[in-house]
Automatic annotation (TrEMBL):
Keywords linked to the UniProt accession: Methyltransferase, Transferase
Coiled-coil region list: none
Superkingdom per UniProt: Bacteria
GO-annotated molecular function: methyltransferase activity
Organism for this UniProt entry: Streptomyces kaempferi
Alphabetical list of InterPro entries matching this protein: SAM-dependent_MTases_sf, SAM_dep_MeTrfase_SAV2177_type
One protein family per Pfam: Methyltransf_19
Protein name: SAM-dependent methyltransferase
Length: 265
């Protein structure tokens, strides 16, 4: 067993993992040599990759402040990633002290680290589940323990849907989650794209990882918000979604769309 309470054989260090590549590129320590190599290859193929991931993370924080500022007190964060400060609960708590959060990820390392960081009791739960089985997420007892689907929920799908292939039917997956949310709920979603630069080499880095990267064009990403109304400024490259400062250098090349939609009816 490791200090985090899971068996070491559960950690696959033979292949890079998306959560650990992301952690490496954000400057974290929860990664292995395979992840570092993949991260370096990614940064070589897409020189703006590190800036892009930081911009995605900053989008996540602005979007969380926005939805909590709009009155939502429940967050379902699917594909939460390795804990990176400020975490979603820290950002949410800075706006309101009574926000309940369910963190969901399919990576046992993420699950173990998140559990080590966050108390299991109280208004936060950490759930090991797969986005490809959305009903299992919605019906999971530890999700239901903190999320009341009769009250507005902010569903976060930030930098995760692009790990679903078309064969995984991502539109249906996201629709199933959206359908579980009542009026007044929000969808916060970001997604990798090749619309601003040719990123086939970057995409190829993930071919040997535990999940492939599936770049999608603007129209495809917008359809994930079907039935929800995008708040201003609509779907945008992440640095340009309600920026709270000047955009970082090379923002125009950043291959991440981000948006926030609200269920109005
Ligand atoms: C790039 S990280 C994003 C972390 C965080 N949402 C953010 O934007 O800062 C993607 C996360 O999605 C998780 N993930 C990938 N495929 C998944 C799936 N099918 N179900 C649940 N989580 C998944 C990975 O384990 C990883 O932790």
């Amino acid at each position: 067993m490791t200090q985090y309470g899971f068996r070491t054989e559960e950690i696959d260090t033979s292949r890079p993992h998306p959560a650990r590549i992301y952690d490496y590129l954000l400057g974290g320590k929860d990664n292995y040599e395979v992840d570092q190599r993949a991260g370096d290859e990614l940064a070589a193929a897409a020189p703006e990759a590190r800036i892009g991931l930081r911009a995605n993370r900053a989008f996540l924080q602005r979007a969380v402040r926005y939805v909590v500022g709009s009155g939502v007190r429940q967050i379902l964060d699917v594909g939460t990633g390795l804990p990176t400060s400020p975490n979603v609960h820290e950002t949410a708590e800075a706006v309101a002290s009574d926000v309940r959060i369910a963190y969901v990820d399919n990576d046992p390392i993420v699950n173990a680290h998140a559990n080590a960081l966050i108390s299991r009791s109280g208004p936060t739960s950490v759930v090991l589940a797969d986005l490809r089985d959305p009903l299992a997420i919605v019906n999971h007892p530890d999700v239901r323990r903190v999320i009341d689907f009769d009250e507005p929920v902010a569903l976060l799908l930030v930098a995760v849907v692009h790990f679903l292939t078309n064969a995984d039917n991502p539109r249906q997956v996201v629709a199933t989650l959206r359908d579980a949310l009542p009026v007044g709920s929000f969808l916060v979603l970001s997604h990798a794209t090749g619309d601003f630069a040719d990123r086939r080499d970057a995409q190829a880095v993930y071919n040997k990882a535990s999940a492939t990267l599936n770049l999608r064009a603007r129209a495809e990403v917008e359809r994930f918000f079907d039935g929800f109304e995008l708040v201003e400024p609509g779907l945008a490259q992440v640095p340009f979604w309600r920026p709270d400062g000047p955009p970082p250098a090379r923002s125009g090349e950043i291959g991440f769309y981000g948006g926030v939609g609200r269920r109005n009816g």
